[in-house]
Write a structure and sequence with these properties.
The complex is a heterodimer of chains A (422) and B (457).
Chain A lengths: L1 H44 L4 E10 L13 H6 L3 H9 L7 H8 L6 H11 L7 E7 L2 H7 L16 H12 L3 E5 L2 H4 L12 H32 L4 H13 L4 H13 L9 H26 L2 H9 L4 H29 L3 H5 L20 H10 L4 H31 L5
Antiparallel strand pairs in A: 1-2, 1-3
Helix pairs in contact in A: 1-17, 9-12, 9-14, 9-16, 11-12, 12-14, 13-14, 14-17, 16-17
Chain B lengths: L1 H24 L8 H36 L9 H15 L9 H41 L5 H16 L1 H23 L2 H6 L29 H32 L2 H16 L2 H22 L9 H25 L3 H9 L4 H30 L2 H6 L17 H9 L8 H35 L1
Helix pairs in contact in B: 1-2, 1-4, 2-4, 2-5, 3-4, 6-16, 8-11, 8-13, 9-11, 10-11, 11-13, 12-13, 13-16, 15-16
The chains are: A mainly alpha (422), B mainly alpha (457).
């Protein structure tokens, strides 16, 4: 009998240990996913912050550039750079035949003559002289140099030919290939050529959308929250508003995209693909988040504050505007920032209102067509070129960086400025 | 113009306040603080301006259009052609017109510009005169020292109330944007075919020559949404298979076992998973998980699609873990301590207490959190668009690719849409069904959670 009891007890203790282990492993799994996730993004993305340059001697031959004697600045701008650009690439291998010259040209980026032009415009005295110019390597060679490209594939499955690799290796040996910080990733707009593609356009698009979103959602949400928390009578109608807000917070984001498409674009005829429409759509989405946060922090202001103000003869409106609302601001602001961070990461609604259009200019106002950072991630992830994979990860790193900063900011506001009652 | 009115508002505020001080200096008792006099005047300045501006914005384009098109009225144009002429006129007047310029259109472009400038100047005149009249009226009122605080506060309250209608307006907007397109869609495609049809092939609707009349029989096998619905629920099911065990167990562990320190670090870390944008998950699923599963499958001799439902569902499950864990954590912590103490006093171990006492007590809340998770899984878009297939297969094999409601909406609506095309309308019909399904889930879930909260509060 005693032995039986002991066995039973042992069994129960074992069950206890097992259960505990399940819990621990669940947490472990969740954290493991997070680690893999971040590791994967960083390990594929960090190399995008470096860019490979080929150092090529360029002879600025006035005759080839169709320049007359003593050219003015305007002449320099209009000159023909393509031929000298082509020639300097062809000169890398004096024995190259026509096909090979073509391949040589494709070792650098698509707009390489612009880089040569910039060089000359910076220093017009170069005419007739030869100078080593940094040219952006093509995205495939960039990947080869970073070691991301499988060189052992058969030639017909590679986008880099054996000949290009041979010349490239020679250049590497001569020290004519250099890797430098990829500034253009931050300053260039999107491009079809991976080596020239940057996040400037989508970044500005995101900033504009978020600003529009903030300017609409914040005032409306705060006013609505004040009404519901401080003034609304308890009746069917306010209950209905409440149910609406709670439901909106859980409506899938793509439905808001359909709303933007069906109402803002089709009925109000607002311009397609613009951060304005994107911002309005996002503001409808963040509205419930901010309302809920603002109401929670209004609720947290103790009634004694209100009673004191009322006792001093303040009207209900004065009490609310002068005392309750300012005291609730830290909570509201941190809720707003979290809502904006959500909006910043949102993709699907923006795709539906046309912010996926290919934009190769940097938008200057919310009325110019633009993409946004998450949409840029989607666009690049869908394109087949190898060079875009690291760009996607780098773009994700930038986006995550912003989200982390915003969330930290929200935390700081909450902890620094929020009064602890009681 | 706008800045001018704002300036005018400020000036009237100062006028109002100064008036209040002058009244005060005559030793009369003010009915409110001086700034309320100012607010009162400013409001009387802002409201008429706002009303006129909005009326103008609504009616000006229609009137201008009528005036322009009256030149063409007796030349036998169709409505569509008239609209086209109007669009051309507008484009030309902005200097953005690239097509062939006929003298007619050039003339109407000039007329358009002159009409616009007339409209602008008359707007300015009307707004200013009305503002001045209304401010003068209000000024007279405050001079006689009538009440100002009450009207100002009433106005503010009305503003607050209007803001709170925004939520309802959004819901109404959603329903409106969906319902018209959906009704048009069901005029062409019978509801029965949509709900019970098993072939989804919207690309077929694009092959149509747009000049021909719509022939509904053409679409009889095109818009059967069963594979889409099945795919949606299937992927959501896979996601919940990942999310429920991990989310629930970590919620229980955090609430009942974890030390303060573990809780302090593990909880925010898990919640990071909820803050990662879904497009990032999608990229992760498409680039890492999909090919990884394919490789494993191939090494076991299975034929795995690189865009399998498993990859999308699994990654979606990871995304939902924090929702379930933090909600069930909340729910479990709100179970009263007395229930635990009672159970321990009877000699139960911790796990027995959790399984036999706390879990049943917290069950409604947990079910609510799971329902919210399901609703999120059904509405999730980017992961599916990027990692799962786009072809709608009716399959229950997790290794094959399937498609979901959200993915189909994106596929149909990406790029240029032609409103009035059955394909575009199909996307709205899918959106409607998505909205309805998630709405039901949300309402039920929120109710359950609310009831549960009330029970222990």
């Amino acid at each position: 009998m005693n032995k039986n009891k002991e066995q039973l007890l042992n069994k129960r203790y074992k069950a206890e240990k097992r259960f505990r282990l399940y819990g621990q492993s669940a947490i472990f799994m969740a954290l493991l996913f997070l680690t893999i996730f971040i590791f994967k993004i960083f390990s594929t993305g960090y190399s995008a912050f470096q860019k490979t340059w080929l150092i090529v001697p360029v002879t600025f031959d006035a005759e080839l550039m169709m320049l007359e004697q003593n050219p003015s600045k305007e002449d320099l701008k209009d000159a023909d750079y393509y031929d000298i650009a082509l020639k300097s690439m062809a000169d890398l291998d004096p024995n190259a035949n026509e096909d090979q010259e073509n391949e040589l040209k494709r070792m650098v980026s698509y707009f390489f003559e612009r880089e040569i032009k910039r060089e000359l415009l910076n220093d017009p005295s170069l005419i007739g002289k030869t100078k080593d110019v940094y040219l952006t390597a093509s995205d495939d060679l960039d990947q080869v140099f970073k070691g991301n490209y499988p060189r052992d594939l058969p030639e017909d499955q590679r986008r880099v030919t054996d000949y290009q690799l041979k010349i490239f290796d020679q250049l590497v040996e001569l020290g004519k290939v250099e890797s430098k910080f990829n500034l253009s990733f931050f300053t260039y707009p999107d491009s079809r050529e991976a080596e020239l593609a940057g996040i400037a356009s989508s970044f500005m698009g995101s900033i504009f959308s978020i600003l529009v979103c903030l300017m609409i959602a914040f005032p409306v949400a705060v006013l609505a929250a004040i009404y519901l928390e401080e003034f609304a009578p308890k009746n069917r109608f306010t209950d209905f508003i409440e149910v609406n807000i709670n439901n909106l917070a859980a409506v899938p984001s793509i439905v808001f995209g359909l709303l933007g498409l069906g109402i803002l674009l089709a009925v109000f005829q607002l311009p397609r693909s613009t951060p304005l429409v994107g911002g309005i759509t996002l503001s409808l989405m963040t509205l419930p988040t901010i309302i809920i946060a603002c109401r929670a922090s209004l609720k947290a202001v103790p009634p004694s504050i209100r009673e004191a103000a009322l006792a001093m003869g303040a009207s209900k409106m004065q009490t609310t505007m002068h005392h309750t609302v300012p005291l609730s601001m830290p909570g509201t602001l941190s809720g707003t920032i979290i809502g904006l961070a959500q909006a910043l990461g949102e993709t699907a609604p923006l795709i539906l209102i046309g912010m996926v259009a290919f934009v190769n200019t940097i938008p200057g106002s919310p009325l110019d067509p633009a993409a946004s950072l998450p949409v840029q991630i989607y666009i690049w992830a869908e394109s087949a070129e190898r060079g875009f994979v690291e760009k996607v990860s780098a773009c994700i790193m930038v986006l995550l960086g912003f989200l982390i900063i915003m969330n930290l900011f929200a935390q700081i506001i909450r902890h620094k400025f929020e009064k602890k009652w009681s | 113009m706008f800045t001018f009115i704002v300036l005018l508002g400020f000036t009237s505020y100062y006028f109002g306040r100064r008036k209040a001080y002058t009244i005060q200096s005559t030793n009369k008792r003010l009915t409110a603080l001086p700034q309320f006099y100012g607010y009162y005047l400013a409001i009387w300045c802002a409201i008429p301006a706002f009303i006129i501006f909005s009326l103008w914005a609504i009616f000006e384009p229609t009137i201008v259009k009528l005036l322009i098109l009256s030149d063409y009225s007796n030349q036998g144009y169709l409505d569509d052609e008239l609209n086209l002429i109007y669009e051309k006129t507008k484009a030309l007047s902005r200097g953005q017109f690239t097509g062939e310029i006929t003298p007619f259109i050039e003339a109407s472009a000039e007329k358009y510009l002159s009409l616009r400038s007339i409209a602008q100047s008359s707007k300015a005149v009307i707004v200013l005169s009305i503002i001045i009249a209304s401010v003068a009226y209000a000024y007279k009122k405050i001079s006689s020292n009538s009440r100002t605080r009450e009207p100002v506060e009433k106005f503010l309250k009305a503003v607050l109330f209007t803001a709170s209608l925004a939520a309802i307006l959004t819901t109404v907007g959603i329903v409106f944007s969906l319902i018209f397109q959906t009704i048009d869609f069901f005029k062409v495609i019978p509801l029965f075919d949509f709900v019970f049809g098993t072939h989804w092939y919207p690309a077929k609707a694009f092959v149509r020559d747009s000049s021909e009349a719509l022939d509904p029989t053409m679409y009889s096998d095109t818009f059967g949404a069963v594979p889409i619905f099945a795919g949606t629920f299937f992927i959501a099911f896979i996601a919940m298979c990942v999310a429920i065990p991990i989310g629930l167990m970590s919620g229980i562990y955090l609430a009942e076992y974890a030390s303060v320190k573990v809780r302090q670090y593990a909880k925010p870390l898990i919640e990071i998973l909820a803050g990662i944008p879904t497009v990032v998950y999608g990229f992760f699923a498409a680039l890492t998980v999909g090919p990884f599963l394919k490789e494993i499958g191939n090494s076991m001799g299975l034929d795995v699609s690189a865009e399998s439902a498993l990859a999308a569902g699994g990654v979606m499950g990871i995304m939902i873990i924090p929702f379930i864990s933090s909600l069930s954590d909340d729910v479990i912590t709100s179970v009263p301590q007395s229930l635990r103490d009672g159970s321990y006093a009877m000699g139960a171990t911790k796990s027995e207490t959790i399984k036999k006492v706390i879990f049943p007590a917290a069950l409604p809340g947990i079910v609510g959190s799971i329902l919210l998770g399901v609703s999120r899984a059904i509405g999730e878009t980017m992961i599916v668009v990027m990692a799962s297939g786009l072809a709608a297969n009716l399959t229950l094999n997790p290794l094959e690719s399937t498609s979901t409601i959200t993915a189909q909406i994106v596929v149909i609506l990406i790029g240029d849409q032609a409103f009035g095309d059955p394909k575009t309308q199909a996307a709205f019909a899918l959106g409607m069904s998505l909205f309805l399904v998630t709405l039901c889930l949300n309402i039920v879930a929120l109710r359950v959670v609310k009831k549960y909260r009330e029970k222990y509060e």
